[in-house]
Amino acid sequence: MITKPDTQHIRQYLRLYLVMGSVNCNQPPEEVLKSAIAGGITLFQFREKGVGALTGQAYYKLAERLQQICHTHQIPFIVNDDVELAIALNADGIHVGQEDAPADQIRARLGDDKIIGVSAHSVAEARQAIEDGADYLGIGPIYPTISKADAQAVQGTSTITALKNHHIEIPLVGIGGIHAGNAEPIFTAGADGIAVISAIAGQTDIEQATQQLNTLTRRLIAN
């Protein structure tokens, strides 16, 4: 288990954030995660959704195996949406959407030492999430994506820009259709990092693809 980081360290964790479940992988997910860690991801979210997603004990066991890999390498392990799984595994945190329970209710169940991320699509949603105690916001979809069937309308970097114009300084990560060729505007708009699925999990050479993104995001953050 990772000790809950302060805001500055959360910004650093968001830089290269892998979101993945078994349905996103062309290889065993455990091997994908190991290669992605070797390539330089900074945070991992377990998201097991979509056609063919595991359920029941198989779902739990995969999460457990991926969590162990993360902890071996000191990478925070975040669960998507599933509060019960996060509690059962004592995960490092959770990421929830607007349709889920608010962050303050989740905090009451998980405890003060967990990272809570919330998806936000407007300044109003961002302010509510901050009021509820979110540690960071996921903003998107930035670009068209095939990884999330129920994704909101594509918004580009407009919401990130709006949040910055309204002096909202909570850590931000962009998500949705992001790859090495289109990541730069997200950082220019003011995000602290990018969350990717297929740009890593869907690649043939996982480690090489991750290294490319790692090098790029380090350069963009430095600028």
TrEMBL record:
Top-level taxon of the source organism: Bacteria
Residue intervals of the Thiamine phosphate synthase/TenI domain: 16-200
Binding site for 4-amino-2-methyl-5-(diphosphooxymethyl)pyrimidine: Q45, F46, R47, E48, K49, N80, S119, K148
InterPro entries with a match to the protein in the record: Aldolase_TIM (IPR013785), ThiamineP_synth_sf (IPR036206), ThiamineP_synth_TenI (IPR022998), TMP_synthase (IPR034291)
EC top class named in words: transferase
Reaction equation(s) it catalyzes: 2-[(2R,5Z)-2-carboxy-4-methylthiazol-5(2H)-ylidene]ethyl phosphate + 4-amino-2-methyl-5-(diphosphooxymethyl)pyrimidine + 2 H(+) = thiamine phosphate + CO2 + diphosphate; 2-(2-carboxy-4-methylthiazol-5-yl)ethyl phosphate + 4-amino-2-methyl-5-(diphosphooxymethyl)pyrimidine + 2 H(+) = thiamine phosphate + CO2 + diphosphate; 4-methyl-5-(2-phosphooxyethyl)-thiazole + 4-amino-2-methyl-5-(diphosphooxymethyl)pyrimidine + H(+) = thiamine phosphate + diphosphate
EC number: 2.5.1.3
GO biological process: thiamine biosynthetic process; thiamine diphosphate biosynthetic process
GO molecular function: magnesium ion binding; thiamine-phosphate diphosphorylase activity
Cleavable signal peptide: none
Keyword Metal-binding: yes
Similarity comment: Belongs to the thiamine-phosphate synthase family.
NCBIfam families: thiE
Protein's job: Condenses 4-methyl-5-(beta-hydroxyethyl)thiazole monophosphate (THZ-P) and 2-methyl-4-amino-5-hydroxymethyl pyrimidine pyrophosphate (HMP-PP) to form thiamine monophosphate (TMP).
Protein's name according to its UniProt entry: Thiamine-phosphate synthase
High-level lineage: Bacteria, Bacillati, Bacillota, Bacilli, Bacillales
